[in-house]
Amino acid sequence: MKTPTTALGRRARGVVLAVVLAALLLAGIILSSMLGQLAIAPTEVIGSIVRALGIPNGWAPTDPVVESSLWAVRFPRVVMGLAVGAALAVGGAVMQAIFGNPLAEPGIVGVSSGAALGAAAGIVLGVSALGAGTIATFAFVGGLLATLLVYAVSRANGRTEVVTLILTGIAVNAFAGAGLAFLVFVADSGSREQIVFWQLGSLGGSRWAEVLVVGIVTVVGAVIAVLLGRQYDLLALGERNARHLGVNVEMLRVGSIIVVALLTGAAVAFVGIISFVGLVVPHVIRMIIGPAHRPLIIASAFGGGALMVFADLLARTVVTGADLPIGLLTSLVGGPFFFFLLFRQRRRSGGWA
Amino acid sequence: MSAAMVQVGALSARGVGVELDGATVLDDVTLDVLAGEVLVIVGPNGAGKSTLLSVLTGERRPTTGVIELDGRDLHSIPQKELARLRSVLTQENTVSFPFLVSEVVAMGRAPWAHTIEGRDDVHAVLDALDATDVRHLATRRYTSLSGGEKARVSLARVLAQHTPIVFLDEPTAALDLRHQEDVMRLGRRMADEGRAVVIVVHDLSLAAAYADRLAIIAGGRLEAVGAPAVVLTEERVERVYGLPVSLHLVNGRPVIVPER
């Protein structure tokens, strides 16, 4: 795909992208709600939603089994997918902005595994008795610590070189991996199962209470990211130039790191590690509408949501009667994509700069 | 260039010194930057030019001394406001993502967002693109440009910022002969409009041709400051640069040629 070379071309593509994303989202939501062990007609899906909005209609399902499987199983799962996908994609876009590097991604640099380590520590310590939000808090703290570590270690002159970023990611992932392994080792079999689940990632068994937490964090984080969008544009000029243009760079960076940790922590806390969404989505969108951050972040949120809903649909339908881990699917696609980006960037800049 | 601009009288450095890791990089520099004037700073590599510039722009807080802008301590001015008072062209101008040239230049307008002057954005950007001869590049991706083109686009961004004080750190380094002259002429023109223009260059003859005042920095100290014809002498250039030179006058301006 060729990057458009005029501002007008980018705007026209933006409109097309918005329409396509909206269509994809809608199709994804309806398809996901229809398909599964119990097949539900699309009219019933729409009817049920319309009825929940307070409008009685003829399409609404009369069978209570259909109604309850929609509202207790499918819808929370779909909304969780939307929220998690949006959170990861926005987190990726923000991370790329503050690292000044298009290859930064919560999974690659180890923020996700830091969050997973935090969540696992929470599970083993048995803090979940304190409420649904507690493990999410642990995941957030783990993610925040990992982000701060990467940030402190890998930056030089306001930018992060690819090699440094990847190597830092390897180190953080290794450390978090060791921590996870240790926790698996000391945990009882119940906790062990839960931890293994983190590492695979799945939207299965999402509950409304969890969806609510992730949804709120995602919306808040995404809104903050959009508001900071203009400043991210200036940051692309380099730290000094941004400062000369009136940006408080340190405040922007610290605030953004907290946003990334929140988004990643919330996403990982309930559904486990889902890699590469934060890399692939902003990248593809940048290719279509250019790098300006406000539209990029908005489109990434919707693109991430759509991608996640379809990935989850695939995960639970590709093998009959089995629920594949969604993290496995995204990595299967994201791994080669990452490889392609590395290759392209290396060829373009003539080195690992 | 549009008319509305904050007027600034003078930026004054008083006894400014900077220590880095225990070494004195800048020592007791007293220098005024005046509206309507081109001040060119020259000096050997590592003499402290960049440090002086970073102190004058408010980027670095001096270890000793003060910088005042019309009597106000420069460091008491909020970053947002400072961005409307002075613009800086840095030596390093990489852009992390493939923004279009027009987008990069428009970023120079950021400090004026939500102000009355912000209504002039389109004009300011187009004027800047014209002034630096890059309008034909407007729809290209910045990351695809050559070094010299990037330098001119970055200069356009600084012009678009439309500030009464303009700092240019080696704006001619990557440019061909004609564009070097263009940039210096542009500096001249901005000063004639009433702005204060500070330029760091290495080419002494180029500096002498366009400077109202020339400041020579050597070993962290202000060696001399004044009219180019007064400040530039064979003896001084030889001593500061450690290289024998001969000085010629062309149109009343000194031209320095190394003895070869």
What distance lies between the first and last C-alpha atoms of chain B, to the nearest angstrom?
44 Å
Helix count of chain B equals 9
- What count of helical segments of chain A does DSSP give? 14
Describe the global form of chain A: globular
Helix-strand sequence of chain B: EEEHEEHEHHHEHEHEEHHEE
Helix content of chain A: over 70%
For the biggest sheet of chain A, the summary is: none
Biggest β-sheet of chain B: count, sense, barrel? 6 strands, mixed
Our count of domains of chain A comes out at 1
- Termini distance of chain A? 23 Å
Structural class of chain B: alpha/beta
How many strand elements of chain B? Answer: 12
At the fold tier of CATH, the topology name of the largest domain in chain B is Rossmann fold
CATH fold-level assignment of chain A: ABC transporter involved in vitamin B12 uptake, BtuC
The proportion of residues in beta strands of chain A is under 5%
Fold and architecture overview:
The complex is a heterodimer of chains A (353) and B (260). Chain A is mostly helical and 353 residues long. Helix content of chain A is 76%, strand content 0%. The model of chain A has no long low-confidence stretch (mean pLDDT 85). With 260 residues, chain B is an alpha/beta fold. In chain B, the strands form 3 sheets. Chain B has a 6-stranded mixed beta sheet, sandwiched between helices. Chain B has a 4-stranded antiparallel beta sheet with strand order 2-1-4-5, with helices on one face. The N and C termini of chain B lie far apart (44 Å). In chain B, helix 3 (101-107) packs parallel to helix 5 (147-161). Chain B has helices at 49-56, 79-82, 101-107, 121-131, 147-161, 177-192, 204-210, 228-231, 234-241; strands spanning 10-20, 23-34, 37-42, 64-69, 72-73, 86-89, 165-169, 196-200, 213-218, 221-226, 245-250, 253-258. The longest helix of chain B is centred in the C-terminal third of the chain and has 16 residues, at 177-192. Chain A binds chain B through residues 3, 5-7, 10, 100-102, 159, 230, 233-238, 240-241, 243-248, 286, 290-292, and chain B through 57, 59, 79-84, 86-88, 90, 92-100, 102-104, 107-108, 110-111, 113, 139-141, 157, 161.
